[in-house]
Amino acid sequence: QTVSQPYIVGLMTRLLDVSVSDRILEIGTGSGYQTAILARLARSVYTVERLSVLGQRARETLESLGYDNIQYRIGDGYEGWAEHAPFDGIMVTAAPGELPDTLFRQLKDRGKMVIPIGEELYSVMRSGDEAMKVHHGGVRFVPMVEDGG
Predict the structure, then answer these.
(1) Which among 4, 21, 31, 52 is annotated as catalytic?
(2) Which of 4, 38, 57, 131 is most buried by its number of CB atoms within 10 A?
(3) Measuring CA to CA, which residue among 11, 9, 20, 10 is closest to residue 45?
(4) Is residue 27 within 8 Å of residue 77, measured between CB atoms?
(5) Which domains are present in the chain?
(6) What is the pTM of this model?
């Protein structure tokens, strides 16, 4: 696993445009660095990590630092966290080949997702059933992997 460059973390956070009342879903907890930033900005963060060792380590670190507005889950990022949907924003930190419909459906209407698709970064706003995509340039992320894949 890798940690995104601070510039990319900052860019993605700015693009998500988090407010203090937001509920955010993060796909790919990783080290917990991006999670911590989101938790400082939002009301609550729901973070999903596929690798249990990574997710547990991030949870222990973040809890030891006093973060109390983060919910953690080990699971398939493609599934999101439907029982807590809809979310004001979704941050995806691994690259699927296309926009995952399951995650898109977990956005509130007018909610925003920031996601690398392939090697391109997009912000995606939900307007009803329509995905309004804005391209923000080329990036390199680890591929998003489905459980069992």
Answers:
(1) 4
(2) 38
(3) 20
(4) yes
(5) 6-138 (3.40.50.150)
(6) 0.95
